[in-house]
Design a protein that fits this description.
The complex is a heterodimer of chains A (114) and B (112). Chain A is built from no helices and eleven strands. Chain A has 114 residues and is mostly beta strands. Helix content of chain B is 0%, strand content 54%. Chain B contains no helices and eleven strands. Classes of the chains: A mainly beta (114), B mainly beta (112). Chains A and B meet through strand 4, strand 5, strand 9 and strand 10 of A and strand 4, strand 5, strand 9 and strand 10 of B.
Chain lengths: 114, 112
């Protein structure tokens, strides 16, 4: 069975500071890993994904994540936070093939302070 | 090209009623998945349809059902609504062979 744990339901950073959102996964098969962002009253937008290619993945809006198999982690980072980054961030896992079932973490709400 | 469209955006229903939600996928996408999002349980997978066939199913009671039409549009139905069914229902479409799911803005269902 697959599962995702996001450490910290709320994270607050200052504008310009490093953003680090943590995600650990559990999967009995090689995983595909995703980070999505959700703005209030909106759907989910893909930030980046890992699908067994390069372990360091670069996404949109300056975000990146590194797949670490030994640590079963896929933490999301951004060197310098912007006010527009304030949103809910979700980590998700699925496995290879045509299985579209995404298993989600509970999300991390990111606040960016001026 | 147009994104995933979900209708209606907001819905208020009474306990015991039934409801149908609609999802139009991105043109050319044949896979449509549905998710329920609540503050307490987060995002949970309901089911996935591909070429009019249910391909995957989550752990929801039989009151939750869906279908997909030949044009890939999908509907989700919930019968005998309960207060706990109040949630944001999200639909996502994917192209075959693509790992990315594109989400609609969701339908917010309130059961009173």
């Amino acid at each position: 069975a697959q599962s995702v744990t996001q450490l910290g339901s709320h994270v607050s950073v200052s504008e310009g500071a490093l953003v680090l959102l943590r995600c650990n996964y559990s999967s009995s098969v090689p995983p595909y890993l995703f980070w999505y962002v959700q703005y209030p009253n909106q759907g989910l937008q893909l930030l980046l994904k890992y699908t067994s290619a390069a372990t360091l993945v670069k996404g949109i809006n300056g975000f990146e994540a590194e797949f670490k198999k030994s640590e079963t982690s896929f933490h999301l980072t951004k060197p310098s936070a912007h006010m527009s980054d304030a949103a809910e961030y979700f980590c998700a896992v699925s496995h290879a093939g045509n299985n579209r079932k995404l298993i989600w973490g509970l999300g991390t709400s990111l606040a960016v302070n001026p | 090209k147009a994104g995933v469209t979900q209708t209606p955006r907001y819905l208020i229903k009474t306990r015991g009623q039934q409801v149908t939600l609609s999802c139009s996928p991105i043109s050319g996408h044949r896979s449509v998945s549905w998710y329920q999002q609540t503050p307490g349980q987060g995002l949970q997978f309901l089911f996935e349809y591909f070429s009019e066939t249910q391909r995957n199913k989550g752990n929801f009671p039989g009151r939750f059902s869906g279908r997909q039409f030949s044009n890939s549009r999908s509907e989700m139905n919930v019968s005998t609504l309960e207060l706990g069914d109040s949630a944001l229902y999200l639909c996502a479409s994917s192209a075959e062979g693509d790992t990315e799911a594109f989400f609609g803005q969701g339908t917010r269902l309130t059961v009173v």
